[in-house]
Design a protein that fits this description.
The protein contains seven helices and 14 strands. It is an alpha/beta fold.
Length: 388
């Protein structure tokens, strides 16, 4: 991850601010011998937020910002002075970022829109000053509330690309070639497996000045859902796609079998992906004649649209665009998006996978202030009996 500018996976330590303690000051002024309690309240600790920002497209800016600390609340003062609230911290992330608890792997939140703000950690409440505890029988309380402690968490942020069409296929299936032929994107193309090491997006122009976004991810191999190859890291980028385009080369021995393997890996990663619309594109069809293509059609799956294409020869490229546009704008696809609320079902992450992905990261060293290790009293205020 350190060698590429495309950073889609980071782990950071977040800490909210602790609340300031209340004051137990007694008012003293000339000609007021019994001024009474006037201790002010402590300020609240700062919150930690995630904020969507479309000016970022990766998590590169967080790669070396390993600690995010919110400000502590100020302590209350005399004459009812309220302590200052702690400074809030905002973590700007690109839309499509998901947060998980690094210790348990539990899903926390999802940021999908520009400007969306989600509270990640809540700052501690400030303690009440002694002026709040004065009663008719206890006119001089000499106690106040301490502030609530801070919250801390090790957070894993994952970026899941927002695209209309996601490409799914084995290595060297022609995914990068298709992206370069349909859009202005120029991903790396070579004749060896795993040429694509990071996802790439391409904007595909369509009739009438319209367009849609296509996403290319590294090739999937059998067992990717269990961690083999690069598939596990990048399968998450197709979770937000409205349409999945499965790509199998025409010179494959058994096209239907390869498609079923790909479908199995996708379903094992996230069973919700089976609800998405799918299209099967048989690539490198310039190597096939018409008679052979007719023979292959008999053994192809009949539960989804199938098209023979060749990105190099430009065969059926416009027909593929028409098919993709029709599926993207079909009524059933729109209804599905509305029913899902534009979001996806996020599964919790396995802790052993998180530990393995961040095994090469240096251990996090968190500096603790002296004020953070002081003993915190109980927050419940118990009634104190007045001396008779």
């Amino acid at each position: 991850m350190a060698e590429s500018n495309f950073i889609d996976y980071v782990k950071i330590y977040c800490r909210s601010g602790k609340g300031g303690r209340g004051s137990m000051h007694m008012h003293r002024a000339k000609y007021q011998p019994n001024g009474g309690p006037d201790g002010g309240d402590g300020g609240r600790g700062g919150h930690v937020y995630l904020r969507g920002n479309h000016n970022f497209w990766t998590l590169l800016h967080l790669r070396f910002e390993r600690h995010v600390f919110a400000g502590h609340g100020g302590h209350g003062g005399k004459c009812g002075s309220h302590g200052a609230d702690g400074e809030d911290r905002y973590i700007d992330v690109p839309p499509g970022t998901v947060a998980y608890d690094a210790e348990t792997g539990k899903y926390i939140c999802d940021v999908v829109e520009d400007g969306q703000v989600v509270m990640l950690l809540k700052g501690g409440r400030g303690g009440l000053g002694n002026q709040h505890f004065a009663t008719a029988t206890r006119q001089a309380p000499r106690f106040a509330q301490p502030g609530e402690p801070m919250q801390e968490m090790m957070v894993v942020l994952e970026l899941k690309l927002l695209a209309d069409v996601g490409l799914v296929g084995f290595p060297n299936a022609g995914k990068s070639t298709l992206v370069s032929a349909m859009s202005n994107a120029r991903p790396k193309i070579a004749n060896y497996p795993f040429t694509t090491l990071e996802p790439s997006l391409g904007i595909v122009p369509y009739r009438g000045g319209r367009s849609f976004v296509i996403a290319d991810i590294p090739g999937i191999i059998e067992g990717a859902a269990e961690g083999r190859g690069l598939g596990l890291r990048f399968l998450r980028h197709i979770e937000r796609n409205s349409l999945l385009l499965f790509m199998v080369p025409g010179d494959t021995d058994n096209i239907k079998k390869e498609y079923e393997i790909l479908l199995k890996e996708v379903s094992q990663f996230n069973a919700g992906l089976l609800d998405k619309h799918r299209i099967l594109a048989v690539t490198k069809s310039d190597l096939l004649d018409d008679e052979l293509m007719e023979m292959l059609k008999e053994d192809l799956p009949d539960d989804l649209p199938v098209i023979f294409i060749s990105a190099v020869a430009g065969k059926n490229m416009q027909q593929l665009k028409d098919m993709l546009w029709e599926e993207l704008n079909s009524e059933s696809n729109k209804l599905q998006s509305v029913a899902e609320g534009g979001s996806i079902v996020h599964r919790d992450r396995e802790v052993e996978y998180l530990d393995r992905d961040f095994a090469d990261w240096a251990d996090d060293v968190v500096e603790i202030d002296d004020d953070d290790i002081e003993e915190i009293e109980d927050y419940e205020i118990e009634d104190v009996e007045e001396d008779s």
